[in-house]
Structure formats: C-alpha cells, structure tokens
Amino acid sequence: MPGLLRIIIPAGALVASAVLVWLAWLQPYLAEQDVLKLGHGDYSLIGTDGQPFTAARLQGAPSAVFFGFTHCPEVCPTTLGDIAVWQDELGDAASDLRVFFVTVDPERDTTEMLGDYVGWVPGVVGVTGDAAEIRAAEKAFRIYSRKIPLSDGEYTMDHSALVLLFDDNGRFVEPIGYQEDLDRALAKLRRLLS
Amino acid sequence: MKNLMKFAALLMFLGAPAMADDKMSMMQEVTVGPLTLSDGFAHATLPNQPVAGGFVTITNTGEAADTLIAVQSDLAGVMQIHEMAMQDDTMVMRELDGGLIVPAGETVTLEPGGLHLMFMQLNGPLIDGEDVTVTVTFQDAGDVELTLPVRKKMHGGHGMSHDGDS
Lengths: 194, 166
Fold this sequence. Notes:
The complex is a heterodimer of chains A (194) and B (166). With 194 residues, chain A is an alpha+beta fold. Chain A has two domains: 1-36; 45-193, Glutaredoxin (3-Layer(aba) Sandwich), CATH 3.40.30.10. Helices cover 42% and strands 22% of the residues of chain A. Chain A is built from five helices and nine strands. In chain A, strand 8 (163-166) and strand 9 form a beta hairpin. In chain A, helix 2 packs across helix 5. The longest helix of chain A is centred in the first third of the chain and has 35 residues, at 2-36. Chain B has 166 residues and is mostly beta strands. Chain B has a single domain (26-153), classed as PCu(A)C copper chaperone (Immunoglobulin-like, Sandwich). In chain B, 13% of the residues lie in helices and 47% in strands. Chain B contains one helix and eleven strands, in the order αβββββββββββ. Chain B has one helix at residues 2-23; strands spanning 30-32, 35-43, 52-60, 66-72, 76-87, 90-95, 100-102, 107-109, 115-122, 131-138, 142-151. In chain B, strands 1, 2, 3, 4, 5, 6, 7, 8, 9, 10 and 11 form an eleven-stranded mixed sheet that branches. In chain B, a hairpin with a 3-residue loop joins strand 10 (131-138) and strand 11 (142-151). Classes of the chains: A alpha+beta (194), B mainly beta (166). Chains A and B meet through helix 2, helix 3, strand 7 and helix 5 of A and helix 1, strand 5, strand 6 and strand 9 of B.
C-alpha cells in the first residue's frame, strides 16, 4: 500500500498543479487570444454603401457591429433606435464611429432591402452576401443564428443580440448588451472613441 | 447607489415625455364573453420593415380558461401569436402553436420583449399616431375587433426597462 501511495500522491500533485496552471494562466490567456481574434477570419460580404465588407474593413476607424435581420419585430428595430440615440448623445464624437448591421438572413435581406431598412439611422451600413459567407462571418464574430420555421410558410431567426465594439485597429474591445442602460452604453462608446 | 439615483433622475427626465405620449393613445377597452382586452397598441414600423408587433392585456374574469387561437388584420397577409425571449445574449422567438391560454381569473399581458401579435407580410407601414384594426379569435369567446393605436418605439435603453432586462 505505501508503495502505491508513493505513486498516487505525486501523481495527484502533478495533476493539481497542471490544473492550476491551466486555470490561472493558460485558459485566460487562450480566452484572451480568442477574443482578440473576434471579427478576424475569411469572409467576404458587401455593404449597402457598395463597399466590400471583410475583416480588413474593421481597421482604420472604430466600429460597432450588430447582427440582425429585417423580419425582426423587436430586437433589431430597438437596437437601431438605440444606436440613433447613442449618435445623438455622442454628438460630434459619433462621426468617427462606423456602424455595421450584418444580416443573419441573407435569403430575404438583399442589399436593396437592407439599405432602406438601415437608411434612417445616419451612417449605418447594412451588410449582406452569400449565405456561406454570412455563416463564415458569424463564425468569425462568434454570432449564433438559427432559422426557425413558422406556420404559413414563414420563418424567423434566433440570433445573438450584442453590439460588438472594435477599435480603430480592428481589435474587439467589448460588447454592449441588448437594452443595456444608456449611461453604461455611452461610457463604453466614449472610451472607444477617446 | 449613486448610479441608481442618476438612473432614476434620467428616468424622470426622459420618462416624462414618454408618459405624455402614452395617455393620448390608449386603446378603447373591449369585452368578449368573460374576457376584457385593454391597453392594446402596436409599434410603428421603420422604413421598409416588413413585420411589426402588436400588444394587448387580456383579463379572464370567467370560470374557465380560454385560448387566443388566431389574429388577423387587413394590413397583414399573415398574423401569428409569438413569444420572444432573451436567453443570455440571444434573441429567440417561437410561435405559440396551440394558441395562448388565458387561465380563468387571470391576466395575460402581451408586451414588448415577450408575447406579441406578430404582423407579417405587411401591406403597408404602421404609422405613429394612426390606428390599426385587428380581429382576435378566442376558442370559446369567439371573435372581437381591437383598434390598436400605433406608437413609436422608445429608445435608448430606458422606457422599456420596466420589465427587467428584456
């Protein structure tokens, strides 16, 4: 028995320290690396402004990126309205912020459809493209979406409802949650734009 | 605490005009059988928005449950009864296949961020300040017509925050 213990105790200690190293250092490090990669990847979409939308587009100026769709009764119109309020509150500072509304429903959301839909909020660019490219972008931004069939031949989309903020180097900074308190959202945007 | 007070001050400041808006566009209360329908409204559509949400409060003063099974409007090719929810940071929406049950003696509220009457295949926009007529059908109580005032959404992460974090 003592012989066996002589193996188990060091082995246990080794496993425990490996777990500690993982939890204390490696896992947060990897998570951070993962977050920094948000938005990066191989996807090629088109904006309602006629410009391509790829990972490279995130560079050069701060951006807010939201995934949604036009057949969305509540979350997407509310978020667009919130963005309009943020722009109002931020005043001149908002002119540096680019806003991209990427559809999770390319089947129905053509550039024409999206352009009219986002057009009432100044500076918001709708983004669409091939279904496969949209899926690639969702993967890059780690956005969840799922098509949900309804009766009468209709369907809706479940989707992540965060506004993702990127700095002028195209690096992910933080998200703004759906219906997040105005003051907190503005603080995040002011930090991003300062 | 300081944040809370700031938020309360903001609510008072921003909430006041919103409340003034509310009182000029109340739905006429209607009853059908033991059901009372009140506080109905619909959200105005954004440019080119192909869908919209309608909301109403249903109180069942009767001895038996009833079920809201259908809704229709001349303005929409299709109308359905949906429930939306935020699960973590994801918006999920489901059609209530079997309709919406209103238990005896209870009140069911359709409101933004939750249950709603979904206008689909809209024939035209829902315009702030106008009305939209819908016919709702209950399994037992039958049909009743509602005149829903159309209102603009409130924005900026306040005004709709009364129901928590929806």
